[in-house]
Amino acid sequence: MSAILLLVLGLGGMAAGYFVYSRFIADKVYKLDPDFKTPAHEFEDGVDFVPTNRFVLWGHHFTSVAGAAPIVGPAIAVIWGWLPAFLWVVLGTIFFAGVHDAGAIWASIRNRAKSVGALTGEVVGGRARIVFMIVIFLVLLMVNAVFGVVIAKLLINTPGAVVPVWGAIAVALVIGQLIYRRVIGLGLVSVIGVACLYGLIFLGPQVPISLPETTAGLSANAVWILILFGYAAVASLLPVWMLLQPRDYINGLQLFVGLILLYAAVLIANPTVVAPMINTDLPMDTPSMIPLLFVTIACGAISGFHGLVASGTTSKQLDKETDVRFVGYFGAVGEGALALAAIIAATAGFASLADWQAVYVKFGEGSLTAFVDGGARILSAGTGLNNEVAATLLTVMAALFAGTTMDTGLRLQRYIFQEWGEIYNQEWMRKPFPATALAVISCLVLAFGAGGADGSGGLLIWPLFGTTNQLLAGLTLLVVTVMLVRRGRPTLFTLVPLVFLLVMTLLALLIQLKGFYMKENWFLLGLDLVVLVAAVLVTLECTAALRRHKKLREEEVRS
């Protein structure tokens, strides 16, 4: 089958979702008000609360949520066949992810830009908040610790990516000044920024940079991780307009250019999807597709991490409430388009079915390697780019998005510690520097404490990321649904996705629990139990709050 068919059907479905379904959600469910004074204006401080152009903010939101996960998840999930992954990405983007992201931003700005964890305390109750924030902390810990490892490995395996990855930071700092000080228009800034990024991408392979195998007794992987966390700590403390916004905006444009190139290559080269529609010849020990498909592909269909970004940084920069539709829903569409590209690269970027099967020899294989190698072959065939340059382009794309997610993730983790300081009256913890230090230390303790001198400890808890992340998405939708009930709004469009997610996630947690027990992995077994108990407790609390508010609403209507 031609990959063009997947491309047209996938992008066409997502476009229809944005132009039709998102308008309905914005007008009839969330009822976005252009005259509502957003927290960005109410609490403007020039650091975290900054009213921002919707296109720039879209870039921040999109690139913060579109890390390596929307590439890794789909590239792994195609082991069950391309059709299940394709359907979940397209339908999940339209009916799940867009509604979730827009809802999280809306709920936050209607409550002084509070994070979804703090918001739970006001909407549901104090007990739910405490448990919910534990889940949030675990998700952020997983994201930050793992993405540090992912980027480090990309930089080691592809020395040509070092210059463009770090050069992008310098470009962003200059772009931030040009935008903030309005030296030149946004259009020209965009052209200059993207041109510089792609100039660096072509320069990178000419000046590859590799660290020594050991430095002061530490491996190259460990050194890169320390450098990355040092950078992320500084980035999380800088005003959002200085680095976070321009870096995310330019990276967002870079992704779209990269996606356009990849999709154009598909149209020109017309590669064949060699992977089976439904794979009946699965490798031994491959888990059941249901429910594991819906947690393997998290980012790219719906992701709880999006709710953290939406209610953590995005809501503090929203200029108008009506921008929620473009920033939130269209941000989800952008990530869905990236996940679709990952599916095409991992199924049509191979010469034959045998070549594909040689990569997918067991569950968990494929990942970034399948995307980069498969995508590079398609790019080379369709555009004539040198295969090394094409691979560098895709590697840099993955590394830059992982980096921007890490930037935002550490800032969000700092917010969590600051909120805990507020909850427990710890004044010192409410300050940015101590909170950032705690965020970095907790990540490094996991990375080096669990992973040893190599610093890859975050990978130990990564098997639980998908389930914990999807659990968070379901619980965020629960909070949004409670708010809709309180306002007498339609709830079906959030209720159906949250019920589906919670059922699939709880089933996946139980399956993983059995697997960890059989393998005698007591660490993950204990962590799985913590997440499972937290899920049940928060669900019960939210369900009780849902019923309570529904009853109150009915009494108000009768009176």
Describe the structure using short key phrases.
559 residues, mainly alpha, two-stranded antiparallel ribbon, 74% helix, 1% strand
Mean pLDDT: 87
For the largest beta-sheet, the strand count, sense and barrel status come to: 2 strands, antiparallel
| Spatial separation of the terminal alpha carbons | 61 Å
Number of strands: 2
Q: What class do helices, strands and sheet pairing give?
A: mainly alpha
Biggest sheet, spatial arrangement of strands? 1-2
Query: In angstroms, what is the radius of gyration?
Result: 22 Å
Order of helices and strands: HHHHHHHHHEEHHHHHHHHHHHHH
Count of DSSP-assigned helices: 22
Which regions contain 5 or more consecutive residues with pLDDT less than 50? none
Q: Give the overall form.
A: globular
Residue share in helix: over 70%
Beta-strand percentage range: under 5%
Query: Which oligomerization state do the chains in this entry correspond to?
Result: single chain
How many structural domains? Answer: 1
What's this, in brief?
It is built from 22 helices and 2 strands. The protein is mainly alpha-helical.
Description:
It is a single chain. With 559 residues, this protein is an all-alpha fold. It has one domain. Helices cover 74% and strands 1% of the residues. The protein has helices at residues 3-29, 39-42, 54-65, 69-77, 82-109, 116-123, 126-157, 162-180, 186-203, 220-237, 244-269, 289-296, 304-312, 323-348, 353-359, 367-383, 387-423, 432-451, 458-461, 465-486, 492-518, 522-558; strands at residues 214-215, 218-219. The chain has a two-stranded antiparallel sheet. A hairpin with a 2-residue loop joins strand 1 (214-215) and strand 2 (218-219). Helix 3 packs across helix 14. The radius of gyration is 22 Å and the shape is globular.
